Amino acid sequence: ILNVEQSPQSLHVQEGDSTNFTCSFPSSNFYALHWYRWETAKSPEALFVMTLNGDEKKKGRISATLNTKEGYSYLYIKGSQPEDSATYLCASAGISNSGYALNFGKGTSLLVTP
Amino acid sequence: GAVVSQHPSRVICKSGTSVKIECRSLDFQATTMFWYRQFPKQSLMLMATSNEGSKATYEQGVEKDKFLINHASLTLSTLTVTSAHPEDSSFYICSATPSGGSYNEQFFGPGTRLTVL
Question: What is the least distance, in Å, from the CA of B20 to any CA of chain A?
Fold first, then answer.
C-alpha cells in the first residue's frame, strides 16, 4: 500500500499571496502523480497528471513540479484568489489488488480571504 | 465535457436496509469506473474497480458480498451497500475513465453521503 502524505493540512492566506503545498509519496513502483482541486459539494477536478522526474506543469496561476527520485511534488499558486479556496488532493498511481489504483493523500485545505 | 453524476447525493437509511448508489458518465462512455469511500478526516480509499460487462475487482479488505457493484452499461455503474450498518456510514465517490482512454484520466462524480442510523 502506497502512503501519500500532504502538508500542510490546512492553509489560510490573504488574496494576492502566493502559496505552495507538498505531496510526498513512495518513490518505488511509481506510475504517475495526480493533483486534483476539490470544492465543497462539487466533483474533484483534475489539475495535473505528471509521470516524468523533473516534470513541471502549469495551468494559469497554478503550477506543479515532480521529483520521482525523492518522492515529492509541489503545487504552487501564484497570487491566490478567493476562488482558489478548495481542498487540493494529490494521488500517486500504482497497481493494487483491483488493478490500477490512485492512492490519495488527505488533502490540503486552502482558504483565501479578500 | 467529461461529466460524471452520482445519485443520490445524500441518503439516510436504517440499519439493515440496502442502499443503491448510481454513477453515470453523462457525455462519454466509460468501460471502467472506480468506487472510492472516504471516512471523516481520512483520505479517499479505492474500494473496487468496475468493468462494463464483467465482475468488479475489489481491494483487500472490501467485502464483495456487502458492496455489490454492477456495471451493465458503458455509462452506468451502481454500488449497492447491502444490509447497511452504522460503520458503513461514509462518503462514497465514483470516477470514470473514458473508453479507450488511459487510467490516468479519471473523472469524478460529486459523491454520495451515506448515513446509516
Answer: 19
Q: How confident is the model at residue A1 (pLDDT cuts 50, 70, 90)?
A: very low
| A107: its cell numbers | 488533502
Mean pLDDT of A35-46: 96
d(CA B105, CA B109): 13
The CB density around residue A24, as the number of other CB atoms within 10 Å, is 18
Chain B nearest-CA residue for A106: B43
CB of B108 within 8 Å of a chain A CB? The answer is yes
Pairing of strands B10-13, B112-116: parallel
Is the separation of the CB atoms in A2 and A49 below 8 Å?
A: no
pLDDT in tens, B76-115: 999 999 999 999 999 999 999 998 878 778 999 999 999 9
Residue B86: half-sphere exposure toward Cβ, Cα within 13 Å: 1
A104 and B45 within 8 Å at the Cβ level: the answer is: yes
Identify residues of A whose CB sits under 8 angstroms from chain B CBs: 4, 32, 34, 36, 41-44, 46, 49, 51, 89, 91, 93, 96-107
Pairwise CB contact (< 8 Å): B108 & A36: yes
Kindly report the number of other CB atoms within 10 A of residue A19's CB atom.
18
Of A15, A34, A4, nearest to A82 by C-alpha is A15
In 3-state terms, what secondary structure has residue B88? Answer: helix
